[in-house]
Amino acid sequence: QLASARAFQREIGPTFPLVHADAAAVPLRAGSFDVVFNEYGAALWVEPERWVAEAARLLRPGGFLAFLTHGFLMPLCWPLDAPRVGMTLVRDCFGLGRTLEDDGSVSYHLPHGEWVRLLRRHGFVSEDLIEVRPPAGASPGRWQFVGLDWARRWPSEEIWKARRPG
Predict the structure, then answer these.
(1) Which pTM value belongs to this model?
(2) Structure confidence at residue 9 as a pLDDT band (50, 70, 90)
(3) 140 near 147, Cβ under 8 Å?
(4) What SS3 class is residue 155?
(5) HEC states along 84-144?
């Protein structure tokens, strides 16, 4: 992600300092930012309570949080031993939370109600939830584990928007 960010800075700007850090313990001053944005990363691979608390700490009052993660239905339709998302529910919704993947990594998936309550607990007001759907004519995309046929029927990605009042 940082290599991509540096390339975009060189290509289109603007330039600003980039920091490589644990998303749940960022070595920067509290209340220093107007925006915290996460494309997967922490939203998928860091315990949600920890990274949302850190995002709240970093934001000024009125600050904006946006994060992109897998669509909630995707892990419910993805057998742990399969390379691709299937067309039927195979995992339980309640208690999904922390998932140990076949490769030994851990991912986190919350139902929408749990996301809303978690954001509220840390002082955020949910402003929007965008359930991403590929447009007509879209290419198969970067993901090998979810096909266009699936993603056109159910959201494979979600973008959450929340704000700290102030």
Answers:
(1) 0.89
(2) very high
(3) yes
(4) coil
(5) CCCCCCCCCCCCCEEEECCCCCEEEECCHHHHHHHHHHCCCEEEEEEEECCCCCCCCCCCC
What does the alpha-carbon distance between residue 91 and residue 148 come to, in Å, rounded to a whole number? 21
Three-class SS state of 149: helix
Contact 134, 155 (CB under 8 A): no
Instruction: Give the mean pLDDT of 46-69.
Output: 96
Asked whether 105 and 45 are in contact (CB, 8 A), the reply is yes
Q: CA-to-CA distance for 129 and 52, rounded, in angstroms?
A: 16
Residue type, 75: P
Share of the chain above pLDDT 90, in %: 65
Q: Quote the mean pLDDT of the chain.
A: 91
Instruction: Give the three-state DSSP class for 62.
Output: strand
Please tell me what DSSP assigns to residue 25. Answer: S
Among candidate residues 163, 160, 164, 136, the one with its CA nearest the CA of residue 148: 136
